Amino acid sequence: MQIIDKLYKGAKPLYPVERFCPADSLLFIDIETTGLKKETTSLYLIGCGHYCEDGFFTRLFFADSENEEKDILLEFSGYLRSFTHIMHFNGDKFDVPYLLYKASKYDINDLFSDITGLDIYKMCKPLRYMLFPDSMRQKSIEGFLDVARDDRYNGGELIEVYKEYEKTHSSDDLELLITHNREDVLGMHLIMPILYYLDLKDADLTFDTYTVRSYADYEGNQCEEVIFDYRTSLSLPVSFTAKTNTMFVKLLANEKKISIRLPIIRDELKIYFENYKEYCYLPDEDKAILRSVASALPKDRYQKATKQNCYQKYTGRFVKQPAAVFTPVFRSDIKDKKMYFRFPEDFNKEAAEEFGRRLLNIFFFMKRRT
After folding, report:
1. Which of 92, 104, 204, 294 could form a disulfide with 302 if both were Cys (CB 3.0 to 4.6 A apart)?
2. What is the CA radius of gyration of the chain?
3. How confident is the model over 61-105, as pLDDT tens digits?
4. Got the DSSP string for 274-295?
5. pLDDT above 90 (res 202)
6. Domain encompassing residue 75
7. CB 352 within 8 A of CB 326
8. Are residues 27 and 41 in the same domain?
9. Do 93 and 34 fall within a single domain?
C-alpha cells in the first residue's frame, strides 16, 4: 500500500464553501475500482483533497494489489475523522455505496457516521438543460470552465492498466493511475465555480431595453423576434448561450449582461374572462360582453356565457410568457396552457424584471429538452 501526497501551494477555494461548512472541514473524495459491480470488483485507490493553510492538499491511498483493499479502507477511515463533510461527483450513486459495502465487508463500522455528504453532480442538476444539454460529466464541466487536464483516460480504461500494474509494478502505469485520480479530486475543487450559476434562478435583473429584429426563416418567410436586454450584479466565470425551441439566452460574463430572445407571432388569440356568469355570449359576433351591456340588445342576439365561450378575440403581435406576468393574458383556447401578451401594447418595464427571471427559471425546472 502507498500513501501519495501532493500540495497545490497557494490554491484557495474558488467558491464560498462556507455555505456548506468551514473550508478546512470539507474533504473531496473520489475512488478507482476494477469495475462497477461492488460485489465482484476491487477498490484500489481512494483519492482525497482538502483545503489547508498552504493551499489544496491531496492524499491518495493506493493498493499495490487487490489484497490491500482493506488496508486502504482502514487508512481512509482514520483520515476521514478529521472532517465533517465530504464532497464528491455523483458519489451518492457510486462512490459512497461502494465504500460502504467494502467497509461492511471488513467490519469497518460507521464509515460515514456524523459525516454530511455533498454531491456536486446533484447540486448542478438544475443547470443541465441550460449549460450541459448533451452531457453533465465532470469533464464536461471542466471543459465549460476551461479547466486543463494532463490525464486523458477515464476510469474504465484504466482497469486494465491497474491489472498490468499488479503484475509489473511499472512506475509508468502507476503515474497514469494516480494522475487520473488526483486530477479528478483536484478537478472537483476547480469546478466549484459552476455552483455560482445556480444563483441565476433568483438573479437580480435590471431591465435595459428591448430590440425588435426582422429576419427571413429557412423557408423565406418574414419573421420577427424581440431581444430583451438585462444587467445583473452576478459575477460568473464564463459566458454562455442556452436555448429551448422558442427561446435563446446569451450571458456575457465580463459585461454582466443577459439577453433573452423570443419570437413575435402574428395571430388571432383570445382573452378569457374568469367571471363568466357576469357575461353573455353573442354567437353572431363570436364574443362575450357584460350582461349589463347585453341587456340593451334583443334577447335573440345573446345567451348565457360559459367558461368555454366567455372570451374576446384580438388579432395582432404576441409574445409567449411563462406565467401571467403581463396582463391581459391571451390564449388560443381555454385548454391551452400557453400564455401570451400583446407586444408591445401590454409590455411594461415594471414587470420586465420578473418576466426575465421567469424565463431563466424555465431551464431550472425542465424535465426534458424542449
Report:
1. 294
2. 29
3. 999 999 999 999 999 999 999 999 999 999 999 999 999 999 999
4. S-GGGEEEETTTTEEEEHHHHT
5. no
6. 2-199
7. no
8. yes
9. yes
